[in-house]
Amino acid sequence: MIQPQTQKPAYWGADFALSDSDIEQIYNHFLEMARPQTTTQIARVIIAHRVAEEQNQVARQLAGRLVYQPKNAYKIGDQLVFPALKFAHGEVTAVREGYNPQYETFPVVAVEINGKTLEFAAELDVEHALNSDDDAAISGMAPVDLDELYDLYETDVVPIIQQTLHDHKSFVYLNGEWFVKELMAEVNIGHLHLSEAILEMSDGGPLTVDEIAPHLDMDPGLDPAVQAFSLNYSLLHDDRFDEVAPHEQIAWFLRRMEPEETTKTPERLQYSPIPYDTALLSPQLLALERELDDEWSDLDSSLGAGASQPQTAVFSLLYPHRWAGVMPLSARLRPFFPASQSPRQRVLFVDEESGDEIVGWVVQAQRYVYGLGDWYKSNGIPIGGFVHIKPGPKPGVISLGYDKRKAKREWVRLATAVDNRIKFDLKRRAVGCGFDDLMIVGTDVVTAIDALWRRADSHQRSVASLLAEIFPELAKANPQNTVHAKTLYSAINMLRRVPPGPLFAELVRHPAFQAVGDHYWQFDQNRWQKDS
Length: 532
Prior knowledge:
Elements: H1 20-33, E1 37-38, H2 39-62, E2 66-67, E3 79-82, E4 88-100, E5 104-113, E6 116-121, H3 135-139, H4 146-166, E7 171-174, E8 177-180, H5 189-201, H6 209-212, H7 224-236, E9 241-243, E10 252-254, H8 283-292, E11 313-316, H9 319-324, E12 326-328, E13 344-351, E14 357-363, E15 368-370, H10 373-378, E16 386-391, E17 397-402, E18 404-418, E19 421-433, E20 441-443, H11 446-458, H12 463-475, E21 482-484, H13 485-492, H14 500-509, E22 513-517, E23 520-523, H15 525-531
Parallel strand pairs: 2-3, 13-17, 18-20
Antiparallel strand pairs: 1-8, 3-4, 4-5, 5-6, 7-8, 9-10, 11-16, 12-15, 13-14, 14-15, 16-17, 18-19, 21-23, 22-23
């Protein structure tokens, strides 16, 4: 029995591509179903179609011919087909008597196949696979289990379908589903104006099309799935509306009512990549970079195949994040905010202590979540303070908390501005949050520090020159005149957005900075003046 080509892995392998017949079959499937379909549903249609095509091809090869079976009688002129010989066919040209000691005498037919004459037994009614009465055995084709084919080859077929339909003008893709343009419901300018008004009355949104559509006076006879798909598609192509739902959901917001910080990156968060030689970083410094988990560090955030989402993640608040009221989308935090098709997502944080809801805005491209400024301020979370998150009760909801402790007075590095330079002093401040004492910095003169940041930006000051300015100020608080790399990282970000990589590379590269162990460094002012 022949194994059908559609049951062989090679058939669905690298050379598999959709044919015109496949496209027509998909189109007809949409006409029949009259509603959007997922790529997986379409893949099942294609696999079933290819199996049916192969079976039809076999049927055509068998049409008008006798399937050769040893038990049957044949005469000159009969047209035979041989499934076991890859469906070779030929004409009986002669019949003679044959003999076998086991079966005695029986007819032997001569069949001309592709210019060659082959002989086959006839009228030999013995137990043999070719003498079966089973239709599959007669045709020579093994039966096909479609469910098994779906399980085996669906993942091979899906990306081919995805790419082919994307390149085909007749098909429209939206949030995991496909549809045909000609079958979409009419959404006119009046429907879009009404949608804008509905969202405006809802403080901009977010609303789903299920919440918007009942107010639009659309055709009540439409399939709800077609109505939803068509309205979503039209809103997506109108600049007034922004799709802001979490991953695998769709909800709409008026773009003009979104916070400015979602479309214009706060200046303290703007990072221009700083080139540096990664080979300068030792394994210990690379480990420290991973510990700091800066959103602009090139760290792998993949959870890995089959891995579950982390149950909790902790980060230390950095000055730019506190200043802008954002949470970084770093390698540890990014898995809690899966990317959607939209550049912005609206999420809800729930304060794990009070239960209060805080609206957050995920800005994937710039790697931050905006909306936490008031929460940081009301809870008195300092720079270096520990904040933690974990998944909420449903997608798009994040539980938010911090390492709350009874407030007590702690030594904090406070920055001031003197003669256009940053200065640091150790002063007592009440702190009611657990913190990394190597990273805690602060200031009572935010406006003055902002002026220093803008000055550094306008003068395009290098990482090395900023280090040379802040290092002596930080070192004076330590009898050994040493400063930890974490402290330098936290402090330099008051003047320029710098991730750990280029900062650490500068410490290693410039001879004025000398490592003294355990990530502590000393600064040689004379060497700096000599080499700068």
